[in-house]
Design a protein that fits this description.
This protein is mainly β and 490 residues long. 8% of the residues lie in helices and 43% in strands. The chain folds into three domains: 179 residues, Immunoglobulin-like; 122 residues, Immunoglobulin-like (Sandwich), CATH 2.60.40; 172 residues, no CATH class. β32 and β33 form a beta hairpin.
Length: 490
């Protein structure tokens, strides 16, 4: 480009033809970037993108001298960019009022008029020019869109797109506003690096990694992860661990990992420290999954799993109780189970009502925890519920509202009662127990029938190693639910 360029001649004419004598440069012609999208989806600035992504934005005139409308005599605007990073833009929907120049991409030259600031890394430009030499441009209220530009990125690299001017109206300066920062879009990976143990206080750890560091221009970078697994996350009753680490924040099952924009850091460590709760729960799983978060990264849905081993479970006896006096409307009464000798002593002393031992009992032991829930006296259900199904346990925990509602029934998680062995389910749906274990059968009192109707009593289950116990309850209207889980053989 040289002084014989039509753009240079246009710029000189624009400067010379402004109305009146040149005044002190106090008014500002200011252009900004608005309505940024990535592949048609609204995006923030900085925008994180990969090769092949389409980045679109509007160039908007936000200030234009002391009076708008009618305005001033025009503007020769440079859209400047790093060509190797962004490629050349497709400029469209150019403001027609006074438009006298639609430039093709060319090497950056001469875009330094009246306060124009260099855009770091920019080496190419497209000039769009407007002139109304009698004054009155753009003769409309501001802000007004000047054009839109779309870049299709040839590479996943960082760069800055901004504005400068080769000429402004006489007596004015130029301000390019905040540039658009294009950042390489990283891929997130999660890897377990250590399993945890409650007895030793050893934490479970995960390495959360970006495929590339965050450049300084892109600002601190945050991503979201979600906790899962059979271990109870922080913020819930009976939490099994706490979450910490440099750049790590935690609220319930949500984890936020923040990376500094230092061009170097690609790894953060999430530390899950076991909480010693004195409850034998066996070995539990802890899963960390990449969530959508800001949408500025790839890898959403990837997950990794570590384990937290409990204190060695102490072999114990589960005692069965039944209370028919306090539940006269429930056929067969209500059954209750306890593995805690202190709690058993309290129940025997009448602290829980008129519960009495049935004489049935079974042993604890296995690799899977049994979750224990209780409803409430009112609104209920005034009953306990036990499950070894991790998905069912987690679903009930997630559905629990705190504090307990006063007018809606719900199950409230109390603790993991003891450990046991899950049932083996065959391809045909049949259920059996592994060698060395014995089946524990479950019956349900049909508080909710298979048809979905509600009977006038609260839900309750009986767990028993003796099938004839189930048959006797079925004769009273209960439902046989087969093998619930497996206990150590006597």
């Amino acid at each position: 480009m040289n002084d014989r360029s039509p753009f240079r001649r246009f710029s000189a004419a624009l400067a010379a033809c402004a109305l009146g004598a040149a005044a002190p440069a106090v008014a500002v012609q200011s252009v900004g970037i608005a309505n940024v999208t990535r592949n048609g989806v609204v995006a923030a600035n900085p925008v994180f993108a990969r090769a092949g992504d389409r980045i679109r934005f509007d160039a908007v005139l936000v200030a234009n001298g002391p009076s708008n409308p009618p305005g001033t005599s025009g503007l020769s605007l440079c859209l400047v960019y790093p060509r190797a990073v962004t490629g050349d833009p497709a400029v469209a929907n150019v403001l027609a009022t006074g438009n006298v120049a639609n430039g093709a991409p060319t090497q950056l030259f001469g875009c330094d008029a009246e306060g124009s600031q260099p855009v770091p890394g920019a080496d190419f430009m497209v000039i769009e020019g407007w002139a109304v030499f009698s004054g009155g441009w753009p003769n409309t209220a501001l802000p007004v869109k000047l054009f839109d530009a779309t870049f299709t990125l040839p590479a996943a690299a960082g760069g800055v797109v901004g504005f400068a001017a080769s000429s402004v109206s006489a007596g004015e300066t130029f301000a390019g506003g905040a540039p658009l920062v294009v950042c390489p879009r990283p891929t997130v990976s999660v890897t377990p690096t250590a399993n945890g143990g409650e007895a030793t206080g050893t934490p479970a750890t995960f390495d959360v990694r970006l495929s590339a560091p965050v450049p300084a221009a892109c600002g601190a970078f945050s991503l979201a992860l979600t906790l899962g697994g059979t271990a109870t996350p922080p913020g819930q009753t009976g939490a099994d661990y706490s979450i910490a680490g440099d750049g790590i924040a935690n609220a319930g099952a949500a984890v936020t990992v923040t990376f500094p924009a230092d061009g170097a850091t690609v790894s953060r460590t999430v530390v899950a420290t076991p909480i010693a709760d004195g409850v034998a729960e066996g070995t539990e799983s802890l899963t960390l999954a990449v969530a959508a978060g800001s949408g500025n990264y790839d890898g959403v849905g990837l997950s990794a799993t570590a384990t937290i081993s409990d204190n060695a479970p102490v072999a114990g006896i589960i005692v069965e109780y039944v209370d028919t006096a306090d539940f006269p409307n429930a056929p067969g009464g209500h059954f209750f189970y306890s593995s805690d000798p202190a709690e058993q002593a309290a129940v025997d002393a009448g602290a829980a009502g008129q519960f009495n031992r049935t004489g049935r009992q079974f042993r604890t032991g296995g690799t899977a925890p049994v979750c224990r829930f209780y409803g409430s006296v009112s609104p209920g259900p005034n009953s306990h519920f036990f499950t070894v199904d991790a998905a069912e346990c987690n679903a009930l925990k997630s559905a629990q509202v705190v504090p307990t509602p006063t007018n809606v029934q719900q199950w409230n998680y109390e603790r993991n009662e003891y450990s046991t062995t899950p049932v083996v389910v065959a391809g045909d749906g049949s259920r059996s127990c592994p060698a060395g274990t014995a089946p524990l059968y479950r019956a349900y009192n049909n508080a909710f029938t298979l048809a979905g109707t509600k009977n006038p009593w609260d839900s309750n289950h009986r767990f028993t190693p003796v099938q004839s116990d189930v048959a006797a309850l079925v004769a009273q209207g209960w439902r046989d639910e087969g093998i619930a889980f497996c206990t150590p053989a006597q």
